[in-house]
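Chain A, query sequence.
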Amino acid sequence: MAVAAVADEIQLVGAALSACGVEGAVSLVQRLSGKSHISFRVEREDAAPVAVRIEPERGILPPYDLPSEARLLQQLARAGIPVPNVLGMSANLDPSAAQRRGCLVVEWVDGEAMNRQQMQSDAARTYCETLRRIHTLEWHSAGLDWLPLPPESGPAMREREEIAQRLRSFGVYDEPHIRRLREALEGRCPNSPPPMLVHGDVNFGNFILRPGDPPQVAAVLDWEQAHLGDPLSDWGRLQVEDLMGNLDLSDGARQVMSDTLSSYGRDEEDLQYWTLHQLYKRSSATAALTVVHGWGIDHIGREYAEPTERLLSR
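Chain A, predicted structure.
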């Protein structure tokens, strides 16, 4: 990275720390992967490293609400869910700017993201146990009743409207592959249970594993899509990642995950719905990225046509 770009990132991170009231001179920044926020690992002189998240000027999953995410993290920590400790938050990184941009500083959690190597059965077990704890959390007693409830039409319909709004805002609502997935969902709606806490982005990269016997989940990251809804939404996301070849599971780990999913007692048709729903949602995010990065619109078909055919042929 060019020296000027590094200096700009250090300046940006320094401003975020200051806005959030977190002390420590920045000594090194590392840009992290992720599509929803601008994120950094930040090393400080004479202080522990932290993670800094900054709202993008234009992102693919609006609206962004880091103050609410910080509040959620604090309440989840009190409820015993493994999340990073919030060190500071600001709703406005630069008061002089025309566009408000929130920023959030949390502790850096040591460990390894679960997507870094093939998942074995013991890691799959702790992953599934943590996911089940999230879904079964008594959100009323945890103080999470400020999260909006799904409409009477159900959580699936709310999410589909949010996806449609994103597609329209990026001008890709009528892209042929997107339209095909949307039409496949029309007239279908799962039989959802009473609202439960849903993480919204349960890919293995958001679960930090602390080695041990057995291993433990040290922290669950990236809660910006958390909501009250149907837990099969999270499982549908996992099914999509598997469909696209993004889950590296041993035979034992695959069995653990299959057994855990079966324990939810849900109909196979509901899981099929949420898998298709999540493929539509993931495609919509990629469609937005084609606009943000200037990729050709045919990128969507190249990535999703084959998984879509396999899913619809089941």
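Strands lie at 26-31, 38-44, 47-54, 86-90, 103-107, 112-113, 196-198, 207-210, 216-220, 227-229. The chain has a mean pLDDT of 91.
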